[in-house]
Design brief:
It is built from 7 helices and 54 strands. The chain is mostly beta strands and about 750 residues long. The chain has 7 domains: about 100 residues, no CATH class; about 100 residues, Immunoglobulin-like (Sandwich), CATH 2.60.40; about 90 residues, Immunoglobulin-like (Sandwich); about 90 residues, Immunoglobulin-like; about 110 residues, Sandwich (Immunoglobulin-like); about 90 residues, Immunoglobulin-like, CATH 2.60.40.1220; about 90 residues, Immunoglobulin-like. The strands form 15 sheets. Strands 2-1-3-4-5 form a 5-stranded antiparallel sheet.
Length: about 750
């Protein structure tokens, strides 16, 4: 089906004619009629000559304003207006608009720069986890980042547009020169985003920044790389990446460590940092002054880009020594239930535990646990640990930190300090709201400045329907309101709530959010708030082009040398069974493709010996078309492949007068008597044999001893045997094998 872009009748008249719909008093105008953003201008005649997709792009841009006969409208509001009266509500004069946003010129609207003015110079994505905001001059860190290290509300927001991935919480970091703010998403960036910078940010002189809005599109296809290594005193190696990698998919099995002889070491511990920017290899695996080779396979970034090259191999050599003990620099209360501990250097973690704390010398120390689900987190420097505990109630507490050591194993000395925890009495504050369609259901998303839990009261509303009739109603108390965390569908507390709008008619609504709609962790309740929002019909996802079906699971797609793909609709044999349309890490490694049961399911078979290592690799799918000719968007899926090198017989030797020892290239299974035929002397009848053995070595017992070593012995590997290696790769050797004596 074709996507359509709908504009209300009132707005359509205004746009198409570029004359005001409502009757406005004549005034002297300066700006030409047309469409302006903060860096562009499209005349009315050019707009009318544009294609529908081009028009839609202009009108959907949140920066676009329309100037019509001296009146100014934000296009995003105008396209929702259904009557002249509604257009009148959103109109601005040129003077009012320019006072707030800058002069309207043929280059767009932009305030004449003031020497030394603080403004945003650019916004860009470094990768799928990080976005940078660059300022014209240094900003005051305290106006952007609060004492806990969180982004201050109403400073910078990054909102997903359309089907873009919600970034989740943004963690800020200001550069040393104060001119670059890096925002790291707990989820990731993928798609189009509206970036808004409010006037709360100040420069070092206390002057406010100029408000800024912009759209950015993030499509990270850059693969992460290994950028360097560092060594701690105990031999622990820290390996850094060019960008954050997906910590949830990083395991020790992806790290292969070999010593100077090329032998694989025993089990190692490779621990990924919470930021995903580096990992460490435990000291026991890297003795001092020895050279090791490390191979990584299948490591991927936040949006699934695999490391390059994949696999990647590099060398580690440990030659560092440290004898200085670590210290606790400070312990401060963040809030009731939370404290921050600052160490003089990075602290060693043992199964996630970096030390202990005791409250009021209770004598029952509690572990400081950085593992997933633990009671602590560590910042990017590795020295500041945040601990949450129910025992950190309001009042003065004696806190003792103990049982910690640095990366070299040097133990620290216990540290005790009196800390006062002050109860939070500040109510959660409304920040913003919007409508989002989630799984084809419309929700009103309300954002707050802290984590809240909904109390689920009824929510009254009034609205003007499509016939301009004012109506009222309410959303019943109960399950219609829930916590909203784009990264965790099961969250019961979050910095936003979602209100189910199912059953509401199309119209412009005023929602009366009641007092106590939400409460924070200290039971402070929100104030009443009235918000206005246009509610329309939920847009269904366009599935014109084929794609992998939602029931298809990458984790179970590979079975030995077979890869099964399931599309969401029937696809053509010409495109789906063309093995050139499927590659692994850019290589054509498949020898066949067949339909399995229907025209949605395709089974690919790998070439013999195509892959030499187990691990994650990219499968790229392209050019596959459905029956209507719609072609799949190039798709990259991370699959866990097993090596496909087929075992072979490396030797067959008479090792006793009635025994032949057969050696394989690797461990094999399913070896039995029926897999071999032995002919002794000139006999054309296969000897009766018995086969025993395991792993790589098997012994064939003849029915009778050889009378002389000059007697001819012929060994055949029977075609159709079921000998295979541990990954299910079938034996490559069949037919006659030379027997040595």
């Amino acid at each position: 089906m074709k996507k359509t872009f709908k504009v209300s009748a009132a707005a359509a008249l205004a746009i198409s004619a570029l004359t005001p719909v409502a009757a406005f008093a004549a005034e002297s105008t300066v700006a030409a009629d047309g469409f302006y953003t903060n860096n562009s201008f499209v005349a009315g005649s050019d707009f009318r000559a544009s294609t529908n997709p081009e028009k839609a792009a202009i009108l959907k841009n949140p920066e676009t304003v329309m100037v019509i006969g001296g009146k100014v409208y934000f296009a995003k509001d105008a396209i929702l207006a259904t009557t002249n009266a509604q257009l009148a509500e959103i109109v601005m004069t040129e003077a009012d608009f320019e006072a707030q946003h800058g002069e309207l010129t043929k280059n767009g609207y932009e305030v004449t720069p003031v020497t030394g003015e603080l403004k945003v110079e650019s916004v860009s994505a470094i990768n799928a986890k990080e976005v940078t905001v660059n300022f014209s001059k240094a900003v005051d860190e305290d106006s952007v980042i609060d004492a806990s290290g969180a982004l201050i509300a109403n400073t910078v927001s990054i909102s997903a547009v359309g089907t873009a991935t919600a970034p989740g919480t943004l963690t800020p970091e200001l550069s040393e020169d104060g001119k670059t703010l890096t925002l790291t998403a707990t989820n990731s960036f993928k798609g189009q985003y509206a970036v808004t910078v409010g006037t709360a940010i100040e420069d070092l002189d206390g002057d406010a920044i100029k408000a800024f809005t912009s759209l950015i599109t993030v499509k990270d296809t850059t693969r992460p790389t290994v950028t360097g290594t560092e060594y701690a005193a105990d031999g622990t190696a820290t390996v850094t990446f060019s960008e954050p990698v997906d910590t949830s998919k990083f395991t020790s099995s992806e790290v292969i460590l070999k010593d100077e002889t090329g032998a694989v070491t025993g089990a190692i511990t490779a621990t990924i940092d919470a930021t995903g920017k580096f990992f460490t290899i435990n000291a026991g695996s890297i003795p001092a002054n020895k050279e090791y080779t490390v191979t990584l396979i299948g490591v991927q970034d936040a949006v699934g880009n695999l490391i390059s090259p994949n696999p990647v191999t590099f060398t580690l050599v440990n030659s560092v020594n440290d004898t200085v003990a670590p210290k606790v620099s400070s312990v401060v209360a963040s809030k009731v239930g939370e404290m921050k501990i600052t160490f003089s250097e990075k602290i060693k973690s043992t199964s996630g535990v970096v030390g202990t704390f005791d409250i009021n010398a209770a004598g029952s120390a509690t572990d400081i646990d950085l593992s997933v689900g633990g009671n602590a987190t560590v910042d990017k420097t590795g020295t500041v640990v945040t601990v949450t505990d129910a025992g950190l109630t309001a009042g003065i507490k004696s806190i003792t930190i103990d049982a910690f050591s640095d990366l070299a194993g040097n133990p620290g000395t216990a540290y005790t300090k009196l800390v006062e925890f002050v109860a939070d009495t500040t109510a959660p504050k409304y920040v913003s709201h919007e409508v989002k369609t989630i799984s084809n259901v419309q929700y009103l998303i309300v954002n707050y400045d802290e984590e809240v839990t909904p109390t689920n009261p009824a929510i009254a509303y009034s609205y003007v329907d499509e016939k301009q009739v004012t109506k009222s109603g309410s959303i019943a108390s109960g399950s219609a309101v829930s916590a909203y965390d784009a990264t965790d569908a099961t969250a019961t507390a979050a910095k936003a709530i979602k209100i189910d709008l199912t059953g509401l008619n199309v119209g412009k609504y005023e929602f009366s959010l009641p007092a106590s709609l939400v409460a924070d962790a200290d039971s402070n309740i929100s104030a009443a708030k009235v918000v206005t929002q246009q509610v329309g019909k939920a847009e269904l996802t366009d599935k014109d082009a084929p794609e992998l079906d939602s029931t298809w699971v990458a984790a179970s797609a590979v079975n030995g040398n077979k890869v099964t793909l399931v599309f969401n609709e029937n696809v053509t044999a010409t495109t789906a069974l063309n093995i050139a349309n499927y590659t692994v890490e850019g290589e054509k490694v498949f020898k066949s493709a067949i339909f399995d049961g229907d025209e949605k399911t395709v089974v690919l078979t790998l070439k013999d010996s195509a892959l030499s290592l187990d691990g994650d690799r990219y499968l790229t799918i392209k050019n596959v078309a459905d029956l209507a000719g719609n072609v799949i968007e190039e798709t990259n899926e991370v699959l866990t492949f097993v090596e496909t090198v087929r075992p072979t017989v490396t030797s067959a030797e008479v090792t006793a007068e009635d025994e032949i020892t057969v050696t394989f290239s690797e461990t094999v299974a399913n070896v039995n008597d029926a897999d071999f035929e032995v002919f002794v002397g000139t006999s054309t009848t296969a000897d009766t044999i018995t086969v025993t053995g395991s792993a790589k070595t098997y012994v064939i017992k003849l029915s009778a001893p050889l009378s002389t070593l000059s007697t001819a012995v012929t060994l055949d590997i029977v075609e159709g045997n079921d000998i295979e290696d541990t990954n299910g790769n079938a034996l490559a050797t069949v037919g006659s094998v030379t027997v040595t004596k």
